[in-house]
Amino acid sequence: MSKTVKPNPKSPAAKKPKASSAPSKSVSKVASKLASKVTTKVSSKAATKVASKPKPSAQAVGKAKPYDLVVFGASSFVGKIICRYLLGRCADENIRWAMAGRSMAKLQQLQSELGVNAEKIPLITADADDAASLGALCGSTKVVISTVGPYALYGEPMVLAAVNAGIDYLDLTGEPQWVRQMIAKYQAQARKSGARIVHTCGFDSVPSDMGVWFLQQAALKQFGEPCQHISMGVKAMQGGASGGTVASMLNAIASAAKNPSQRREFANPYSLCLDGNGKTVANSTRQLSQKSARFDQNHAAWSAPFIMAAVNVRVVLRSNFLEKQAYGADFRYEEVMLTGTGVKGRLRALAITAGLAGFMSAALLAPTRWLMQRLVLPAPGVGPSEATQVNGFYDLRFVGKTRSGKTLRCKVLGDRDPGYGSTAKIISELALCLLANPATKSDAGFPTPAVALGSRLLKPLNRAGVTFEMEP
User: Fold this and answer.
1) What angle is formed at CA 163 by the lines to CA 1 and CA 211, rounded to 5 degrees?
2) What is the mean pLDDT of residues 147-160?
3) Residue 429 domain flag
């Protein structure tokens, strides 16, 4: 079963083929088309109409939608893993879902790969370079998962379409500079339309965001006060490299190298704590940012910088900001990579630190960045084998200290490789949890995973193989 939305013959999508899973047009040119009227069927004439204000979602006015959930970018590497997982989960709960992308041939191939149980899953063609097709897609569903990245290049059109339709949107971005831009541009519209735009719904940053939330709830229950400081240490992690994550990271580095204002944003851990006017809310509390190997007293082990801390720390601080400083206005959070004790632990920490420094230095320069992309790093759409995904895991340790000096510990464990196996299950369960818990007026906007769902997310994450345990 398929549903095709034909792009305007004059649109860029009709003029040239795409080389990747996302279009090559700039976001700024595409986003201006996205205020077109949302409807489940779009004619070529409708594609030329532009509305000046976001329309209320069909869900808000009581119209039935054909789908509960649509996966946009279904034929991408991670999209395929998500669809395979959802095939069983949605059948169990009678969820109406569809797979979407710009190539019907690739969607049909995916449908065939998934087997006979996928034969009746609807297929929708939609292109991030075609405003009308995205409007039609968002008008047909309650929740959309987007895997089309790097999001800073290709993500804005779908965000705006979801905002205009007043639906729930999830993605796997690890690009804080882009997340900041989306919040600043569209948070007022999202609150008005009832949309929930939830970024960073994979390994970055759900285990970190929910791990802090979990430990803080325990501190409040046991001590009657939150933890003033929490340190997360990656004790162990195994999995394959993610081409999509690497591409997003390189794009963020390249963008910051050209833009002084973005470099300042990267230096500010509170860059996602924005007021209603899209301005950063000042906070004088100094956050710890590890840049070298050191012995970590919180975890009693040597440590090195953790590359995903730049994303995760900002998401956790945004959660605290959105919850009106529930963790305290002076709350501090840090993330490190634990390397063990003794001489071996120290040498390992030094080696990781040197490797990260070399990577960042090479990524800042266009020629060496190009060489790494061509010769060393995995390309977007390339990822680990199924065996690597299944045999992967992660073990995150959280240590919290309250203002009165009391200490609490917990661990977050994942049963698949972080970049793909676990990430695919996490975003799938988060999407189903949003579907089961419709937005209220106060929920709309750009919540973090922890703020959007809180305790309601624990069981779904357990189902996804992510467990939360207190430690003695």
Assistant:
1) 95
2) 94
3) no
